[in-house]
Amino acid sequence: MVELPDLATRLLQGKNFATVATVMGDGRPQASVVWIDTDGTHIVFNTAEGRVKPRNMRRDARVAVAVFDQENPYQQAMIQGRVVAMEHEGAEEHIDAMAKKYMGVDSYPFRQEGEQRVIVRIAPEKVALME
Question: Domain residues for 30?
Fold first, then answer.
């Protein structure tokens, strides 16, 4: 695991969207745009069970994350890493915090009946920056 540089941390903490790429069972890449965060050490995002991303990450923990500054898209961080945790505990509160960050609302408005949220933590292994 490598330490996240200041620019990467700032981009992850900011109101910037990220693309997370996972590996399908047949080796093809799969990419999704997500709300992104960091706990200071790991890259953090929230998804729901039953989607492609959680299945892919349980089978193959390798991921890539690309995030750029919404105000200056020439500032970017491209991060390769591994999923080190997928947690249900606290996931509902986390998606509400992400909704507050990105939408300015107190509660995530797109909950689906019976949906189980999951927090994904990624340990960065390689970071490339464009400043």
Answer: 6-130
